[in-house]
Design goal:
elongated, mainly alpha
Amino acid sequence: MADLNGFLAGLASDSPTPGGGSVAALAGALGAALNSMVANLTIGKKKYVDVEADMKDALEKAEALRLELTQLIDEDANAFDKVMTAMKLPKETDEEKAARKAAMQASLIDAATVPLAVMEKCVDVIRLSKVVAEKGNKNAVSDAGVAALMGRAGAHAARLNVLINLGWIDAEQHGEFVEKANRALEAMSAEADRGANESFGIVLGKVS
């Protein structure tokens, strides 16, 4: 990903990419980074020796998520660029129309698959936020709460990007994919809300 200023400038421009899908991945990556920070602020502290192993495990998972979500920022933009390329294919003859439709459908499936992966990773970020909120350094517990909120925002932002692409996919031709994606969206949306609320509740209980 380019530097933050460059990314934001691109986001604000009239180019369709990067867009909301990349922002969803960025939100998740921010949440993952905050989980890492809480874990790092806990590891090595005598007061938290009993949870040292848990925090090391959380740190490993959080760093993996941060790297994966950072990569997905660009992957989302690249996937939608392929949709735009397919849209510009010629459509004068029946053969061209068929080829264009096939390319469109394939690119739309990819464009929906990437934010599905983002949403899954964001739910994992939320799960980890609960662990670091419960066991991590109390002086950084507010950051665990922000991690949960970023994960939730990323999950729902990714959901919107899946839905808008599903709307263009031929449900008759790709019904299994559409049905599976909708089921996954429903399950992950519920888990994201439930998990974020649990993490945020833990944090509020410690800072109030």
